[in-house]
UniProtKB/TrEMBL annotation:
<protein>
    <submittedName>
        <fullName>Uncharacterized protein</fullName>
    </submittedName>
</protein>
Amino acid sequence: MFNCGGCGGGNPLSLLFGSPSAPAEEEVSMSSIESVMAENSALVAEQWFPLVHPRVYEKWGEAARPQIRSVLTEIARNSRGDPVGTEEACVEWKPARLEVHMFDGRSVKLTDVRRALAFLFVDDDSYLALMNLARDENEPLETLCNNPRCANIRHVVIPD
């Protein structure tokens, strides 16, 4: 930018063309961004809600619907993509740990997100095969893609 020391340091072209207007800065607060993200996560969770396997209600009861919505919303908020749908690519999990707050009928505890997704969505045979694996419930399930950040339920290795 040209600044003339003799005329007060301003831009001499502004005398001919006027002063350039500063670009308007939109102030977007973090709370408004978080609000939109929370709303979108809740909408995604509502789309997944009818897909929840009946075993969840058998184990937790119909009264657990608010807790199920909460888990689904947390999964939606923390996923970069759709871990439940037909997405073929890896669905990255945003938080540092691959965990979700999962209601177990009595209390809330941290659970591996892939195990939570399996409980919530896979068919009975696949679920039983996964649960028969002798692993800690917080240990992530193995994936076909070997991506440690992947939360796509379609990538979980289901034993024969």
